[in-house]
Known about the structure:
The protein is α/β, with parallel strands linked by helices and about 425 residues long. The chain has helices at about 25-35, 50-60, 95-105, 125-135, 165-175, 195-200, 235-245, 265-270, 315-325, 345-350, 350-355, 385-395, 420-425, and strands at about 5, 15-20, 40-45, 65, 70-75, 85-90, 110-115, 140, 145-150, 155, 160, 180, 185, 205-210, 215, 225-230, 250-255, 275-285, 285-295, 305, 330, 360, 365-370, 380, 405, 430. The protein is globular and about 60 Å long.
Amino acid sequence: MRGVRVGIPDHPLRGDVTVPGDKSIGHRALLLGALADGTSIMRGFSRGADVLATLEAVRRLGARVADEGDTLRVTGAGLELGAGCDSAIDCANSGTTMRIGMGLVAGVTGACTLDGDASLRRRPMERVAEPLRAMGARVTTSDGRPPVRVQGSQLTAVDWTLPVASAQVKSAILLAGLRAWGTTQVREPFPSRDHTERLLAHMGAALACRAGVVALEGGQRLRAAEVPLPGDPSSAAFLAVAALLVPGSEVRLRDVGVNPTRTGALAILRRMGADIRVERSRDEAGEPRGDLVVRATRLHGTVIEPEEVPAAIDELPVLMVAAACASGETRLSGAAELRLKESDRLAALEQLAALGVPMTTRPDGLTLQGLDGRPLAAGRVDAAGDHRIAMAFAVAGLRAAGGVEIADPECVAVSFPSFFEQLAALGAPVGGG
């Protein structure tokens, strides 16, 4: 695909939108469904490249998956999943597939090599390898990065304290803990997304969750379940900020997940003055969901503290775009994790300066001065193959005189393949660069 340019609309953004199914829940539903006894049914499945990598991974390990478009039927192999295998799993660009997958295979009597593309090969994996080794798995990395070789064995439970809150590392330890002797405990400094814990309970596992600690007894068998996936709140955030920034806009984002561990971005936006309401709230399969109704609002800057980062980690790029268009200063700290994503997202966000935004970056964050409604400058952005950077700067184009061109727009397929089409359907001018 050639570059895509997004510019200032002639009229407000309007419409009802359905975003792809929650990517985080989709990964976990596939992995836990593969470990369960019986056939699980997952509705609202995203067709993003990341979750498709997880789909192929569980097939390689012995689960059967009937792919019916947005519905999957996963027939698990129980706790015997992957027994005796010697498999190579291509995780593509998906860190979630690799990190949680390492925990999935750590307790099997077999071996597995997990690898991925050039971007994934730059991402750290020792944070997962270390606790799995403590449980008894043999895990080798390439200087701390992929490819990762996991030689499974009988595991022993561990009481592990995460130095940095990470839902992926927590989930890997819990999945390994299902096949370990004893009770595995994971402690984290700040709450991270809890989809794994909710799905484990939905599939019949008994686990204890209290402030900062999750405990799971090994040997429990999971039962198949129906898992209706809500819309992905991280994907929804990009369209929500788009509606906030274009005067007069009102957009309804239907059936979006509003799990409290995933609504950090909404809390930050509301603190900045955003008009975002949740309607038709309900719970399904242990996950809260509802419609987000977003109205254009004049925003002001804020301070994003380190303890807020885990619940808004994927939305931080578009939150910085919102801050760039707001009044006053915004300061982000405690976000060094952004340097370890599909790209160095803090470095990628420095391109806001080329669009006229005064800013400085630090190892763990940035400070910027919002333009208070003045238009951004036109520009061309290198998303470095990072879907969230591409979408964030596309939203910036809605406030840029002359627009913003995204040089590699195809990378949005990782999480939101129809993003540019959805943006155009709301009334944004989206065209070739």
